[in-house]
Amino acid sequence: MFYTGKGDTGTTKTFGCNQQRISKSSEIPEALGALDEVNAFLGFVKMRSTEISRIQVVLRDTQETLFIIQAQVAGADKKLKEGAVAQVEVLVNSIEKEIPPITGFSIAGGTEISALLDVARTIARRAERKLIAAREVGACVLADETMAYMNRLSSLLFALARLANHVAGIKDESPRY
C-alpha cells in the first residue's frame, strides 16, 4: 500500500531504523527530504544526459551514494565506500584537465544538461546545509567523510555542468556586474 494514514497528524518514522515517531518538520525529515530531492533531480538529469554517457554513469553512482547517506541520517549502520571522497576528487580533477580553467563566476546555462546540473548543484548545497543543521543539533551522527562527500558533490556537479558545455563547444559566460 502506498499510504498508511499514520502521518496525517504531522509525524513520521524513519524507514527500518529508529521506530520512534517524530515531527515531519524536525531536522531528520528535513535532511532526508533534501537528500531525496537531490537524488530525484539527479535521476531527471541522468535521463536527459543521453548524449554524454559518462555523465549518466557518474550520476547513477552518485545516486547510490546518496541512498547510503540517507540511511545514515535515518540511523542505519551504513557507511560510504572506502575512498568515496577521494573518488569524487579524482573525477573533478580529471574533468578540470579537460576543460578551460575557471576565470571567474559564470552564468548558468549554455546547454540544457549544464543548466540542469547547475540546478542539481544548488539542490545538493541545500541538502548539505540541512545535514549540517541536523548534525549540529545532535539529531544524527554523520561521519566526517559523509560531510566531506556532500561538500565535494556540489564541486562534482559544477565540473559536470562545465564539461557538458565544453563538450557542446559552448564557452562559459561571465556576469557583467
* Uncertain parts: none
Which descriptor suits the 3D outline? elongated
The largest sheet has its strands arranged as 1-2
Query: Quick one: how many beta strands?
Result: 2
Give helix and strand order, one letter per element, not per position.
Answer: EEHHHHH
Overall tally of domains: 1
> What's the CATH H-level homologous superfamily?
Cobalamin adenosyltransferase-like
CATH topology tier name: Hypothetical Protein Ta1238, Chain: A
What is the percentage of strand-forming residues?
Answer: under 5%
Mean residue pLDDT:
90
How many helix segments?
5
CATH architecture: Up-down Bundle
Q: What would CATH call the class?
A: Mainly Alpha
The helical percent reads: 55-70%
